[in-house]
Write a structure and sequence with these properties.
24 strands, 4-stranded mixed sheet, alpha/beta, binds ligand EPZ, 14 helices
Length: about 425
């Protein structure tokens, strides 16, 4: 397993490009299943999860062509196996996003239950509830969801769906399924993340009739078929937020090219309260910071968009570890998303965890050590901590990082970090 070697203490300067969003790219790859015509996706990030999704699409008989660093062309015209097998799903829970499109396009799907992951049990009961309301029968057999249209139905039907809690991929599954359903679908407590709006824009480019995307109420009028399209994947707000926290912690002055400040209001507000200077500029975000030791630790509570994103909790906690004062962090979305805490303690952080609440007491310094990544965003947190810790930090098991960050060490190296990847 590869690891990253980081020598802390460098300030960061220069410009770094923000890639396309992982959590927009994955549903959009599944949305290509809805049409028999080819779809071209631009600004697709180079991530392990994207490679896994492409393997899944090829398994189904979908044509995939990716020129180097160029557009990705997906042709689902010859789709022959509406299935997502366990060996692919177990490494990437977002495979559940194939369920809605396959039901809409083929009236049948066999998708392995994703199972849990490091940060929580990750159930899909709401996905099943909503698609059942749209006229699907979904049975769970031998670890697979076996979905087919209800007796007598030739296509899904529009429904009024209100889930028990806000679910991002649940909203995306319903949105995709509803584009080809008969009649109108209304999603009541829809997720409002920018990736939902970006998916809707792609579907509209394919001929779908959608309104209200980006709000908590989305209305979709089903159509008979969707045509191909060309769509550019929105910039990754979590990658951008991760770099904002890194520069705030190390100190410096960096331009995040393509970053969308309007997708990061809650995080930017906290960074400004801490004492960093964050500005939206033409086609990007500029961050200037005196360094974490001169900033004030900020407490926050993760909530659904537009609140403080759970996917930024670990990264901001790394900043709080070396800022002045004490901060209280509450994780309300996932039940086990503090696994980075034990690793931060190895670096000299002072953190007390009680259930969903972590209290961080900022320290004047951290000291480098070997630490272990446990999940995607915990990995990013440990990289940030390593950038400010004294001496060398080795972050192990960085395959977690590779799932969701496009060449992170190269991007950090490009703005002055002393960081290198060591092959196992
Ligand atoms: C998406 O996961 C993201 N993944 C996650 O990003 C992100 O952390 C999460 O949304 C929350 O913002 C992708 O978009 C691919 P949810 P998702 O359904 O859709 C419960 C990252 O680091 N729930 O919004 O799986 C669930 O347990 C990843 O990039 C049910 O109980 O999350 C959680 O407590 C990690 N039943 C809450 O809802 C369901 O059927 C929100 O989950 C569905 C969800």
């Amino acid at each position: 397993m590869d690891r990253l070697l980081i020598r802390g203490g460098r300030r960061l300067h220069g410009e770094v490009p923000v890639s396309g969003a992982k959590n927009a790219a994955l549903p959009q790859l599944c949305a290509a299943l809805l049409s028999a015509e080819p779809v071209t996706l631009l600004n697709m990030p180079r991530l392990q999860d994207v490679s896994t999704m492409l393997r899944l699409l090829r398994h189904m008989g979908v044509g995939v062509e990716r020129s180097d660093d160029g557009p990705l062309r997906i042709d689902a015209g010859a789709l022959h196996t509406p299935e997502a097998p366990y060996e692919l799903v177990k490494t990437m829970r977002a495979s559940v996003l194939a369920l809605g499109p396959l039901l809409a396009r083929r009236g049948a799907a066999k998708v392995s239950l994703p199972g849990g992951c490091a940060i929580g049990s990750r159930p899909v009961d709401q996905h099943i509830k909503g698609l059942t309301a749209m006229g699907a029968d979904i049975a769970v057999e031998h670890g697979d969801m076996i979905a087919r249209l209800s007796a007598g139905r030739r296509r899904l039907k529009g429904a009024h769906i209100a889930t028990d809690m806000i679910t991002v991929t649940g909203t995306e599954n319903f949105l995709m399924a509803a584009t080809l359903a008969e009649g109108e679908t209304v999603l009541e407590n829809a997720a409002q993340e920018p990736e939902i709006a970006d998916l809707a824009e792609m579907l509209i480019a394919m001929g779908a009739q959608i309104e209200g995307h980006g709000s908590s109420r989305i209305r979709i009028q089903g159509v008979d078929r969707l045509h191909g399209c060309s769509h550019r994947v929105v910039a990754d707000r979590i990658e951008a937020g991760t770099f904002l926290c890194a520069v705030a912690a190390t100190g410096g002055d960096v331009l995040l090219r393509h970053g969308r400040a309007d997708h990061l209001d809650a995080v930017i507000e906290k960074l400004r309260a801490a004492g960093a200077d964050v500005q939206a500029v033409a086609d990007g975000i500029r961050v200037q910071s005196p360094g974490g030791a001169k900033l004030k630790a900020q407490g926050f509570r993760t909530t659904e968009y537009p609140g403080f994103p759970t996917d930024m909790q670990a990264q901001f906690m790394a900043l709080d570890c070396i800022a002045q004062g004490t901060a209280t962090v509450t994780e309300t979305i996932f039940e086990n998303r503090f696994m980075h805490v034990d690793e931060l303690l190895r670096l000299g952080a002072r953190i007390q965890v009680d259930g969903k609440v972590a209290v961080i007491e900022g320290q004047p310094r951290l000291s480098g050590a070997t630490v272990m990544a446990t999940d995607l965003r915990a990995s990013a947190c440990l990289v940030i901590a390593g950038l400010v810790a004294e001496g060398q930090t080795a972050v192990e098991r960085i395959h977690h990082l590779d799932r969701g960050y496009d060449c992170m060490e190269a991007k950090l190296h490009g703005i002055g970090a002393d960081i290198e990847r060591v092959q196992a």
